[in-house]
């Protein structure tokens, strides 16, 4: 993020991004979703290692029939 800020590629001050990230991580921890994110990361890593397309979800299908 610091490199992007130095290159002038961020639309907000770096401190705002850090504050938002801290707030979102706290929310994930409070909601007890940390385990969920780790499991999803495992699925994504598994798929990428095997050449299985990984996308954003149902709104943007990666496989076309």
What does this structure look like?
- It is a single chain.
- With 65 residues, the chain is mainly alpha-helical.
- Helix content is 58%, strand content 0%.
- The protein contains 3 helices and no strands.
- The longest helix is centred in the middle third of the chain and has 17 residues.
Q: Give the number of DSSP strands.
A: 0
Oligomeric category: single chain
Give the class from helix and strand content and strand pairing.
mainly alpha
- What portion of residues belong to β-strands? under 5%
Low-confidence stretches: none
What's the alpha carbon Rg, rounded to whole Å?
16 Å
End-to-end separation:
38 Å
The average pLDDT score comes to: 88
Describe the main β-sheet briefly.
Answer: none
- Order of H and E elements: HHH
Topology diagram in text:
Layout: H1 2-6, H2 14-30, H3 34-49
Main attributes of the structure:
65 residues, mainly alpha, 58% helix, flat
Concise synopsis of the structure shown:
This protein is mainly alpha-helical and 65 residues long. The protein has helices spanning 2-6, 14-30, 34-49.
């Amino acid at each position: 993020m610091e490199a992007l800020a130095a290159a002038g590629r961020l639309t907000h001050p770096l401190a705002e991004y850090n504050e938002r990230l801290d707030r979102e991580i706290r929310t994930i921890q409070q909601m007890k979703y940390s385990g969920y994110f780790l499991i999803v990361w495992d699925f994504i890593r598994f798929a990428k290692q095997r050449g299985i397309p990984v996308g954003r979800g149902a709104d943007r299908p990666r496989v076309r029939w």
